[in-house]
Amino acid sequence: MATRNKKSQPSHPFAYNGLDRLIHERARLGVLTSLMPHPKGLLFGDLKQLCGLTDGNLSQHLQVLELAKLVEISKGHKHNRPQTICRITPQGRKRYLDYLAVLEQVVVDALAAAKADLHTNAERLLARTDRFERGYSRARMRMFAMVR
Prior knowledge:
Elements: H1 21-24, H2 26-35, E1 42-43, H3 44-51, H4 55-67, E2 71-78, E3 81-88, H5 90-147
Antiparallel strand pairs: 1-3, 2-3
């Protein structure tokens, strides 16, 4: 059985394996982003408003995040009214920050690729302009030669 040399395998610089699929989902990313600046947590209603989610949708996403130990949910009462408070856990905070670091690298790489593409396109445009100007100059010189 032949074994492959790791050096012969192609590099995958844009795989971004650190983009946590659990966090990368739009609604869960919104939930965690909303909870990050609030270490004491947010009321369910406030979180729902910030994320633009329905009660059921937010509940489902919170359940997924709670199972992964990224958030904790506590239920209580205040002024005889039920209250649900959602907090990001220390593990959730760490995973979120790790996710952001990878996402930041995606943005850096995308900008570098866009700049390289812009630079390449600018060089092509300059070369085309240069060819046009040389052709224009030759044609102009021929016209003057014909007029003389």
